[in-house]
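debug: dumping io for the single-chain case to check the tokenizer round-trip. Nothing else runs in this session.
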Amino acid sequence: MDRAQKEKVVEELGQIFESSGVVVVAHYTGMTVAQMQDLRAKLREVGGSVRVAKNTLAKIALEGKPAAKMGDLLTGMTVLSFSEDPVAAAKVCDAYAKTNDKFVIIGGAMGETVLDQAGVKAVAAMPSREELIAQIVSCIGAPASNIAGAIGAPASNIASILSTIEEKAAA
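debug: decoded output
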């Protein structure tokens, strides 16, 4: 790899570290190509991606970035998983680590916060953006549903009383 290629990789990694909501660092020693492709496919489904790069280039790319302290995690054979959604990559990596013992999460970064292994698991346990939006919409819709039910209840009660009186009169 010549100097121009290295500079391009450092620039790409710098953009990843700046624009990603979460970056997960993991060891992948012993994983097959098929397993790595499976991980890539799962991350692609949620809008994330995987990047394998030399640790020295990744450390250079981290200089001056909010998550610069994450450089301490970059030792050995590391893979970077990232997504714009602050939860997506962590969820996929956590689930994948449970099924593949060769994929070991070391830590990561979420904005300026450097995460250890437990921190990544905590982020993975958080609801995703879509789940949060669904919860907010249901909270907003519940009072309107209750109001509609309360407004319609007296009319329904009157109709049921009238039908009961009508049935008694007919009998």
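debug: round-trip ok. Residues 14 and 64 are 9 Å apart (CA to CA).
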